[in-house]
Amino acid sequence: MVGSTAGQRKAASTAGPPPRRRFRRPANPGLWQVLVPVITLLAGLLAATTAHTARGTDLRSAGRSNLADLIRQAENRVVSDDNLVRQLQNQVAAATDRLARSDERVAAIKARAQPLRAPAGLVAMTGPGLTVTLDDAHPAEPETDPVKANALVVHQSDMQAAVNALWAGGAEAIMVMNQRLAATSAVRCVGNTLLLNGRVYSPPFTIAAIGPVPGMRNALEESVNLQQYRKDADAYGLGYQVDEHTHIDVPAYDAPIGLSYAAVGG
What DSSP element (H or E) covers 201? Predict the structure, then answer.
């Protein structure tokens, strides 16, 4: 190997310089003179469009592509907006009270509306009642069967069945997690999470209700949908627990109140 390497180096030292390559001009130099400015203009336009779209942010930021980060950002905006709504509501209430002291019409309207605040859920309540807790099953190994996997989680219909049963049993006030329910509240599930008043909650889900305990217990037991849920709880390990309390605090509904309705034109 040593002799062979020396021979190769000697041959390389005695060889002449490599032949010079000729530069071949393009067949159509006028075409390149046109294409180069066009390509440069397009590159500049792309850079300007990107800068305008980014507005000083990173378009490829990891936070923008991470769903969990997007959800947290949305929740933070909801909390901020809720705080602003509460401030504005307090300002409106204070201004209404001041005006009612000098305006008889405003005072009369306020007096008529006062008895409706409690049924509308706008007044905090305290009293005895029940809590109902629903939870996903937690198998030792992940379930690969889609049909069985679907039976291992709490669904929107299960939450609605529990809430409706409590109302039917005479509940005077209901709170899901820490959110008071009003006539316009909607219990929605997105995947295995609960979406209520713009906030996202993960299981276990707790429903607290103030009202007659015997009536609400009977309504829970007689609910057809909850009977099926309890069967699935026994079969698959779903969580279902009903507890009685002598003292439950349910806050007032403080989310924005708005109704969308249709009217007959004519």
Answer: strand 199-201
